[in-house]
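As a representative case, we now present a protein record of this kind.
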Amino acid sequence: MESCARILSPTHFPSLFPLPNLNRSNFNPVWPKKPEASKSLRLHCHKMYVPGFGEASPEAKAAKNLHNFFTYVAVRIVTAQLESYNPEAHTELMEFLDRHSLNDGDKFLSNLMRESSRHKSLALRILEVRSAYCKNDFEWDNLKRLASKMVGESNTRLMREYVTETSPDAEK
């Protein structure tokens, strides 16, 4: 993701930083100062600034969550496959799932690999399925469409509820 950031001085925002009246009686040749590099105002073109994410962007946080979700999906796929053709491995994986959380996909798979050689084979299968699902089967365009649709519908519903609750007709 490219950013087209530029450094703007206060003189780029005349409504926020009005320039002084330049008549001789109150002229101050020092003001306005050019901002120091560390005090510069940074703007990103075409992107909204999202404060409070520290080291990662919102997209990076969402990618981490999707990464863990793909592990969950891969585990579900593998357990369904094992149920029909290898009931013993299915039982072992289900017992492991009872003892270990799937919240952190990489930690789960790391623990699974170290459990036993049979579990290592299951972990390698889950890694393979996770990668294939992410690359080939997950519908990225559909995700964007559904997320946008959900935000729009939710915003409309919440605004409608608020207007209904606060309008004078609603109090009758």
